[in-house]
Amino acid sequence: MSEKYYFECIDCNVGYPGGNIIYLCPVCSKDNQPGAPPRGVLKTIYDYPGISAKTHSDNLFQVLEQDDFMSLLPLTDRKYWPNMRIGGTPLYKMGGRTADNFDVYLKDDSQNPTFSFKDRASALVSAWARENGIQTLVAASTGNAGSSLAGICASQGQQAMIVVPAAAPLAKLTQILMYGATLIPVKGTYDDAFDLSVQISEKYGYYNRNTAFNPLTIEGKKTVSFEIYSQLRQHVPDRIFIPVGDGVIYSGVCKGFEDLLKLGIIDRMPVLVAVQAEGSSNLIKNLESKSFISTPSNTIADSISVDVPRCFYMTARYMNEYAGEAVSVSDKEILAASLLLSRSAGIFSEPAAVAAYAGMLKYRDLGLFPAGSKNVVLLTGSGLKDLSAVQSSIRIPAAVEPDIAAVENFVNTRF
Ligand SMILES: *Cc1c(COP(=O)(O)O)cnc(C)c1O
User: In sequence order, which residues have a C-beta less than 8 Å from that of residue 145 and are 6 or more positions away?
Assistant: First the structure.
């Protein structure tokens, strides 16, 4: 039991006490079917009036920040947090736009310990496990969640078991093994890996980190919102572009700002733009539909290649409640944006992250940014995680003889 927080089912609104292992709402998840998004995802609720009442400072946000937002995390003590720099990633204002009258900021979350946004969720799940004396964790992953959990667990002295579809990119598989986790490649899809990991956690009692299934994944991801608000000197940005696969990052970012709204720290929500790859837009395509129809995914952006978004209902509800927007981008647009981002900002992101940047470019080119607006792009993972995705965009030159004449010849034929 925890006095500090409880879980609420987004479908039936029934509350469950914090401090216990619980994944989906047992009532609402009973009839979940493979091929359909799960019902019964849980939202973490805090004692907002109690938190507000604790301080007399006129800057509640600053007070919460000084304590690393422990009041808004489901932990009793910071000592369980990994001894690594989780989050705290840079927010860069894009330069060279003297003609533009709006601002674009890049939040570079590839600067996390395992080079993706997923560390925010893994850190919280791992800390919670430590606090509760759990030694082994399991996750299904297309790559980043697994490599993240493996790395964070290594730093915490915990065991990790990672179940992945066999086709995951080499760099992510390499990370998982280098961090010493048990890697279980599955002949099947992410959905097969997901179901298998749930069976593993049920059979062996391992704590499951699966995205959206474990409600703490959403709580961990929300921390980026507090950082963005802080880095913008306590201003709410106008739009945030978020790459969406399962929708947990989207829901997490929304939850972070919603916490601030409930505390009266902010008085309006940013517009959150869900960006999906055209070849994997099952979340966007089903927003208006009565019953969920999944189209098989096909995109170079493997981290957002999702047939059945695990956080569909929470994301859809948030989009509805806070006027969220959506845009999809083609693989061609992602590849072009990847070069542009690398060459204009010096940030090499993996295709899923670049999708968010491509979505921002689409808005910009349509003239959708009001004067004076602040627009943030979440760059969620490093380009080094998937080198093969961009090989068609570049050509590594043949070697030249090590003399200046050969170099001269090379340069002349090139330019
Ligand atoms: C997981 C991931 C996403 C998408 O997050 P969801 O919560 O599945 O929507 C985007 N970018 C990267 C790099 C990721 O690893």
Answer: 118, 121, 122, 139, 209, 210, 211
- Give 87-117 pLDDT, tens digit per residue: 999 999 997 555 678 999 999 999 999 999 9
Q: Which residues contact 378 (CB under 8 A, 6 or more apart)?
A: 107, 109, 117, 224, 240, 241, 242, 243, 249, 253, 353, 356
CA distance 228 to 394: 33
Spatial separation of the C-alpha atoms in residues 257 and 73, rounded to whole Å: 14
Distance, CA 55 to ligand 1 centroid (Å)?
36
At residue 116, the pLDDT reads: 98
Residue among 41, 162, 304, 347 to mutate when testing ligand 1 (max atoms within 8 A of CB): 304
Alpha carbon distance 159, 252 (integer Å):
26
3-state secondary structure of 319: helix
Q: Residue 334, class by beta-carbon neighbours within 10 Å (0-12 exposed, 13-18 middle, 19+ buried)?
A: buried
CA 105/CA 90 separation, integer angstroms = 10
How far apart, in whole angstroms, are the C-alpha atoms of residue 82 and residue 269? Answer: 30
CA 133 from centroid of its chain's CA atoms: 26
**What's the token pair of residue 388?**
């093969």
C-beta separation of 365 from 102 below 8 A = no
Domains of the chain: 91-115+217-393 (3.40.50.1100)
- pTM for this predicted structure: 0.97
Which ligand 1 atom is at minimum distance from the Cα of 309?
A: 8
Q: CA–CA separation, 21 vs 106, rounded Å?
A: 35
Cα–Cα distance between 195 and 176 in angstroms, integer?
Answer: 20
Q: How far apart are CA 203 and CA 122, in angstroms?
A: 22
For residue 213, the CA-to-ligand 1 centroid distance in Å is 15
Per the CB < 8 A criterion, the answer to whether 225 and 249 are in contact is no
Residue 136 in tokens: 């082994």
Phi and psi angles of residue 90, each rounded to the nearest 5 degrees, phi first: -70, 150
